[in-house]
Records
---
Amino acid sequence: MSQHAQSNPHAIPQEAPHTVQPQPSPSNIKRWRQYLADERAEAAVYRDLAQNREGEERAILLALAEAEGRHEAHWLALLGKHAGKPRRASTRSRFLGFLARHFGSVFVLALAQRAEGRSPYAKDPNATPAMAADEQIHEEVVRGLATRGRNRLAGTFRAAVFGANDGLVSNLSLVMGMAASGVASSVVLLSGIAGLLAGAMSMGAGEFISVRSQRELLAATRPTQITLAAAPKLDLENNELLLVYLARGMSREAAEHRVAERTGQLSCDCDPSLSLQPELAEEDDRHEAVGTAWGAALSSFCFFASGAVIPILPFVFGMTGVAALVVAGALVGISLLATGAAVGLLSGTSPLTRGLRQLAIGLGAAAITYLLGMLFGTAVG
């Protein structure tokens, strides 16, 4: 304490100089208000999704909404009196909110994953490092939630998308090849119908065999509970139980520990980390990601047929010649963009990029077949 303060204990201390916060620029206010609107919209998306979930998933989504609320509070504090009336969220955030309220599907989580991954906070000087880190963690959390939904959809969705794409591309190629060869439009139509039926049956049968075989392979590799029944009867000096666990991939230490448990030499789990218990039923069904054989077959059949019918629609309604081919190509192009975009949404990548890739591959195959048809028609003629 200074001598002056000691000699004058009743002196009124001087106040620290008041720090005046700088007036935010109009561009900052505009950006912060947009961030505020988006945080509110994203929190609402997570709350809407939570309404359709139970247990752990519901708790995770509500925790994400709470975190977005903390970000909202940050921008409100910066804006102060400039917060003004609530601003409309971005088009992407509003679209997510619409999907979450009306569908609540895995596609919403995939889109939310992309939104979290594109957060501008890491480069914004007004966002805290903790907020930027939150967004990175949120992306991984949403990725995990979306993965659960992808696994549930994987088998049937794969068959549906592949079936539709195969139907679109193969039948458009067939129709264009036949038309380029110079045959009558009625022949082109009949060829398209034959291609639809043959392809749909082939796809359905192929998917049934593929998925059934994969499920049988998974079932064959799952450990049985034979060790539980045989262990009490084994010769403790000479038995092959150790070999069973080694063959299942355990380390020797873990295998010896499990053998001692099974044969009654250990009455407790002295080291629970070694108790892998591969004989017990798994909580997660590995078959879930594969899908059912009948589901995959039916999905593949229907979606191949729905794709294959599009190229022949102009001929069904009486169109002929180049006009019919142009319309068929346009219809197939729109469909390829849609299926590609759906895959992009589900996988969390750019829908436009995936759609354009599907379009390029499909129309490229059709163009090559058309040229081959022209050559064949010229050679036969």
Note: The first helix runs from residue 3 to 7.
---
Amino acid sequence: MNVTTTSSEVPGRIPGAQAPVPGPGADGEAAAPIGSPSGQGEASVEVPRFAPRWLELREAADADARAHDLLDPLRIRLANLPGRHRGLIIHDLGCGTGSMGRWLAPHLDGPQHWVLHDRDPYLLHFATVGAPRAAADGSRVTVTTQRGDIGRLTGDVLTGASLVTASALLDVLTRDEVDVLAAACVGAGCPALLTLSVAGRVELTPADPLDAEIGEAFNAHQRRGELLGPDAITAACEAFAQQGATVRVHPSAWRLGAEHAPLTAEWLRGWVAAAVEQRPDLAAAAEAYLRRRLEQCEAGELRVVVHHSDILALPGPTGRS
């Protein structure tokens, strides 16, 4: 997997770390996807880092956007798992600073053990420190961490898992990597809740003549190399369905208003920068465009809808149906 291109809508990079391309991927939550245990061949890999400040900025918008309608079918599946009384084991891939766990753990009953996967030990530290401590019914929540690469994810890694989660991950993967993920989850009989994959549509109000061109260039940037970008939802649905899973898709848009001005401003900078990297001929017009948009944002006049989708994949209880 290309570890240098992992964030789309504004990565907050730690100064001095390897520079990620500011375009491909969902929104920068998945600093890097993970599958193998810590310490196995990772020491020599230079890891891209994303500032916890960016992930903190987006966390509330992520929580508001995630599809609550998928929680009931997920709860029903989890309630019927063999050995459910012993608690849930949840693997969070590309966990970033752990916002998925902070959102989901309080929505699920019973003891939970979260295995937090990421390539960046810096983010794993923040995820551990900020991990939730209690489930919806007050049961204990514990965490451990692993480092590795999703390209090595197998059903064996997920042995005993109750659920796989990820946030803003699918669109920074290739089709082969999505196939690997689907096969591993279904092979382990493990549901997957994969949230906040960009859909390739953005709405800005008031409208600007350059909106569409910037958006098209951004989407093209997301598809650089073999990354799926906005095609990730379709690819994931196909991959899980081919493995025999039942797949549900629900919209999960960011709806950013005046109260989200800091997040909107950071998103705008990354969105426009990626478009210009894809289309250098846009540079002069994009500079003026970004200035106008930031002024509108500061004045509380700008509204932005960034469309995402969430996926819930439910395999047969013992794997492929």
Note: The longest strand covers residues 192-205.
---
Amino acid sequence: MNLADMLTYADIGQLTAIAGRYRCECKQNSKHDLIQSILIMLGSRSFMESHIRECAPEDLRFLNTLLFDERTYFSLEDLLAVARQASFNAPEGKTGGFREMVSRFKSGGWLFSGSSQQTRYLYQVPKDLKERFRETMSAHIKESIATSPEPVMYRSEGELMISDLVMLLRYIKDNEPELNQEGAMYRRYQQGVMNALHIPEELLSKGGWRFGYGRACEHYPPRFALLYDYIRHRRWISEEGFRLRLTATGEAVLNDGKCDSLMQIFSFWLRLYKGAVPNLPSLVYWISISAGNWVTVPSLVDGVGWLIKPFYYDSAASILEQRIIRMMVHLGMLKLGETSGGLAVMMTPWGIETAVPKYLR
């Protein structure tokens, strides 16, 4: 439902709270006057622009999460979890501040209780407010983004990840690599795989922390780890007996030559990284909005880095540059080049199309 519909179902107490917050001039005892004045206030372009500029970062992160959530209704517990996720520096166990945030958005006209018996204890966000927030937020983020001249040379991997997935399956079939006690391929096999792939990576050095980005990230470099986790998820490989072999399903995929699409790997990547980067779909979207032409990577860090919560030893900047932008290059969504001003990126047509979630189209 849109804002006008939700205001109609709202009780006069919430309407009065919303009108009072925005200092609407109207008859406080007239529901009709309250609704009309609120619609005029919240419907103005200047309202959304000033709201975004004046909002604290945690409030914008709260709205951003709700915008990219497929659910129509949220329980109070859902909203408190979103508020906790948006408040990066909040102490553990603190709930009063999260409840206050939810109450603030309710009195601000962003959250309304359901209108039926089944949804009366659930909350929803007006559809038209979501759309207008997304449009205004796009303009707000773009203000921080610096354009870049086109690099003389740039990297665009297209669908090489699909080709390398097939190469990985073929290597496993031909070599049946041995696994060590930790369940990882011995380094000689890892190097053998890298020599066979279109996009090789440096093997991981010993030491350092590695977790949060899939099981294989502990043993292998990021792109290869994603491919490995994907074929294990699809049950195309078996790790029994300290040997890596293809399953019957994996053999069939290799023999038929009908591999999965890049879109399927992209969707898997979003799920795989969800623990470390819960709002990854929104970050991919904002990058696509910002990088329709060549833009500098440092300005992308300035534009969307504040939406990213550091993950243990990974800073917001390193998550954006190494975990998101680099992987979007591997997935064929971004072109990457270097100019005198540093690294620059630009979305590919496929990347622009893929970055918009279905529920926002």
Note: The longest strand covers residues 334-339.
